Amino acid sequence: MSTISILLEHEPKGFRASILGLPDCQAEGATREDALANVQTVLKSRLESAEIVSIPWNPSALDQMAGIFKDDPQWDEFQAAIASYRHSKSARL
């Protein structure tokens, strides 16, 4: 069995339960227990009429380049040179 995180808020007329990550899955109730039971009903109804599918996805060229310098022995030296240059430019301002 899994668990789902629910935001439970005390309202002037009772309680509001919202499923985190699914902002349209909310319910109210006079008591804490009522709100939780009601939001479970909302979620069950949503899942009965829903389907999770996977689609092909081509990451952008920039995503494919992420991390290409992680093992480059000159990377730290390069970053230090950038920091030094920026520091010299900001010192002139």
Walkthrough of the structure:
The chain contains 3 helices and 3 strands; from the N terminus they run E-E-E-H-H-H. The protein is α+β, with helices and mostly antiparallel strands and 93 residues long. It folds into 2 domains: 43 residues, no CATH class; 32 residues. Strands 1-2-3 form a 3-stranded antiparallel β-sheet, with helices on one face. A hairpin with a 2-residue loop joins strand 1 and strand 2. The termini are far apart.
Q: Return Rg in Å.
A: 25 Å
Instruction: Determine the mean pLDDT.
Output: 91
The tally of strands reads 3
Physical arrangement of strands within the biggest beta sheet: 1-2-3
Strand residue content = 15-25%
Q: CA-to-CA gap between the ends? A: 61 Å
Task: Provide tags for this entry.
93 residues; alpha+beta; three-stranded antiparallel β-sheet; 3 helices; 3 strands
In short:
This protein has 93 residues and is α+β, with helices and mostly antiparallel strands.
Describe the secondary-structure layout.
Blueprint: E1 6-11, E2 14-19, E3 26-29, H1 32-48, H2 61-65, H3 75-92
Antiparallel strand pairs: 1-2, 2-3
